[in-house]
């Protein structure tokens, strides 16, 4: 079992009968979905799930999980998802898969947000390894980019990996992948992005994680 699978199985043990559980997106979340489906079959666990992306919905459906559509959600007991970067004070960077609007809504709606990751995701500051994904409506991207450049940001629209043109999210936004000066700090950057007109959502998850489960060489460590 690899570290992502190990930590996903560890998180699946936290799921109790009767819970409404949010499913994240990505390779670590996929291991969680598979293990949850196994527990539903083998342990007769009785739960409902809601999904943060089209791909996770398909995976959950394939494995026979009972899905509540996000339109009907008012709250979740648990939300379990991976991350791209995790700081020592549990600020996260998410959204390389560009499903960050649903991911952040579900993280906020959950009583507990469990983050599952391997050691490679630990960083000292947000933006250390990746640029920050910022979703914008297509009509607003130039105006938003200019506002972000005024904050010291650099970057551009995320290209479409398969075709010409730019990446479009499942709800029709473009994604600006931006870097900012280290001196801004995670908190100030989060606040600045929250208050920039035209930003639909951004990839900094500040104050949302309840606990991070990190696997390293076969051991799970809980960070709070
Ligand atoms: C998707 C995400 C993922 O959780 C993040 O990219 C981690 O992915 P993986 O588990 O494949 O390493 O934020 O928007």
From TrEMBL:
<feature type="binding site">
    <location>
        <begin position="25"/>
        <end position="28"/>
    </location>
    <ligand>
        <name>substrate</name>
    </ligand>
</feature>
<feature type="active site" description="Proton acceptor">
    <location>
        <position position="103"/>
    </location>
</feature>
<feature type="binding site">
    <location>
        <position position="121"/>
    </location>
    <ligand>
        <name>substrate</name>
    </ligand>
</feature>
<comment type="pathway">
    <text>Carbohydrate degradation; pentose phosphate pathway; D-ribose 5-phosphate from D-ribulose 5-phosphate (non-oxidative stage): step 1/1.</text>
</comment>
<feature type="binding site">
    <location>
        <begin position="94"/>
        <end position="97"/>
    </location>
    <ligand>
        <name>substrate</name>
    </ligand>
</feature>
<protein>
    <recommendedName>
        <fullName>Ribose-5-phosphate isomerase A</fullName>
        <ecNumber>5.3.1.6</ecNumber>
    </recommendedName>
</protein>
<comment type="function">
    <text>Catalyzes the reversible conversion of ribose-5-phosphate to ribulose 5-phosphate.</text>
</comment>
<dbReference type="GO" id="GO:0009052">
    <property type="term" value="P:pentose-phosphate shunt, non-oxidative branch"/>
</dbReference>
<dbReference type="Pfam" id="PF06026">
    <property type="entry name" value="Rib_5-P_isom_A"/>
</dbReference>
<dbReference type="InterPro" id="IPR020672">
    <property type="entry name" value="Ribose5P_isomerase_typA_subgr"/>
</dbReference>
<dbReference type="GO" id="GO:0005829">
    <property type="term" value="C:cytosol"/>
</dbReference>
<dbReference type="GO" id="GO:0006014">
    <property type="term" value="P:D-ribose metabolic process"/>
</dbReference>
<dbReference type="InterPro" id="IPR004788">
    <property type="entry name" value="Ribose5P_isomerase_type_A"/>
</dbReference>
<dbReference type="GO" id="GO:0004751">
    <property type="term" value="F:ribose-5-phosphate isomerase activity"/>
</dbReference>
<comment type="similarity">
    <text>Belongs to the ribose 5-phosphate isomerase family.</text>
</comment>
<feature type="binding site">
    <location>
        <begin position="81"/>
        <end position="84"/>
    </location>
    <ligand>
        <name>substrate</name>
    </ligand>
</feature>
<dbReference type="InterPro" id="IPR037171">
    <property type="entry name" value="NagB/RpiA_transferase-like"/>
</dbReference>
<keyword id="KW-0413">Isomerase</keyword>
<comment type="subunit">
    <text>Homodimer.</text>
</comment>
């Amino acid at each position: 079992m690899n570290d992502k699978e190990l930590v996903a199985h560890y998180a699946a043990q936290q799921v109790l009968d009767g819970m409404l559980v949010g499913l994240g997106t990505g390779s670590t979340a996929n291991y969680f979905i598979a293990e949850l489906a196994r527990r539903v079959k083998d342990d007769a666990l009785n739960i409902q799930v809601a999904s943060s992306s089209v791909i996770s919905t398909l995976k959950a459906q394939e494995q026979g999980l009972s899905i509540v559509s996000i339109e009907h959600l008012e709250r979740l007991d648990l939300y379990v998802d991976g991350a791209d970067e995790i700081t020592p004070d549990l600020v996260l960077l998410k959204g390389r898969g560009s499903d960050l609007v649903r991911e952040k809504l579900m993280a906020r709606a959950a009583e507990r947000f469990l983050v599952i990751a391997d050691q490679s995701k630990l960083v000292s500051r947000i933006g250390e390894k990746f640029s920050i994904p910022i979703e914008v409506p297509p009509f607003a991207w130039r105006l938003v980019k200019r506002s972000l450049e005024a904050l010291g940001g650099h970057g551009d629209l995320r290209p479409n990996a398969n075709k010409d043109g730019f990446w479009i999210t499942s709800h029709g936004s473009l994604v600006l992948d931006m870097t900012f000066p280290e001196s801004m700090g995670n908190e100030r950057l989060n606040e600045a992005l929250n208050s920039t007109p035209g930003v639909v959502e951004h990839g900094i998850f500040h104050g949302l994680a309840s606990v991070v489960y990190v696997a390293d060489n076969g051991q799970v460590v809980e960070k709070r």
